[in-house]
Amino acid sequence: MQTLRDLPALRAAVDALKSDGKPLTLVPTMGALHDGHMALVEEARRRGRHVVVSIFVNPRQFGPNEDLDAYPRREAKDAQMLAAAGVDILWIPPVNVMYPAGYATNISVSGISDGLDGAARPGHFDGVSTVVTKLFNQVRPDVAIFGEKDYQQLAVIRRFVADLDLSVEIIGMPTQRAEDGLALSSRNAYLSEEERKAALALPRALGEAKRQIEKGEPVEGALAKAIATLAAHGFDPVDYVSLCDAATLAPMTVLDRPARLLGAARLGKTRLIDNIAVDPA
Ligand code: AMP
């Protein structure tokens, strides 16, 4: 595996990889890798393609009071895991390579970026959209793989890839969970032992609301109950528990088409998100 930190070296290495005509797959990450990330890498490898993984803790997607400085960074261990998984290139640009002095451009996707995490974290999806567009231009992948764990992020990326006529195929992978059901996340490292137990209330509350809504109970009541359950387990604030159209993320009050139930809430200093499919059949 080549570990690269500057653009000319990356471009040369990508050209060399692509010279055999096989497709190239990119897996963008912020590092502190866990089995959720590695499932995306394994899917890329399974497809028998060249694999580039990026690690970039993107300052533009963190708000002023968020955890940019505290975000876990474990480059040596990440590199070992990726090399063992058969990754061809680890692209790990410094901030001044991604955003050199004078950098002034922003990609902003309206509508689908506005609610849910977009409302709770103003500017977050502009940061994501900008950096993912740059990563696509830097690496020039044929395919890029993202996790459904960040469901709104995946939907926003699909939107701008279609809108900007980018020639990259976007693949979404199911959320990988710990045995007890908590979605794997780099931020789980912030949780105390007690918080780790309480955190389970998030997937459980979403699962219970899904069952109620699929049984035909009123959506509003099921969402309110999930929010109350989270509050009772110490989540504060609960940013949202929402039922949304699975493709557009428009809010839904009646289950009349494929939907997604999404939740975000803070437990101590850790903000957790999760989501599950809700099926009208
Ligand atoms: P991050 O490093 O958190 O930016 O995540 C990098 C990629 O891994 C994103 O596409 C995430 O959606 C995906 N990812 C993170 N956690 C999981 C998980 N538990 N299961 C599946 N994909 C995940």
UniProtKB/TrEMBL annotation:
Chain residues that bind beta-alanine: Q61
Enzyme class: ligase
GO biological process: pantothenate biosynthetic process
UniProt-annotated binding residues for ATP: 30-37, 147-150, 184-187
Annotated function: Catalyzes the condensation of pantoate with beta-alanine in an ATP-dependent reaction via a pantoyl-adenylate intermediate.
Family to which the UniProt record says this protein belongs: Belongs to the pantothenate synthetase family.
Extra information: The reaction proceeds by a bi uni uni bi ping pong mechanism.
Name recorded for this polypeptide: Pantothenate synthetase
Source organism of the structure: Sphingobium cupriresistens LL01
Recorded name of the encoding gene: panC
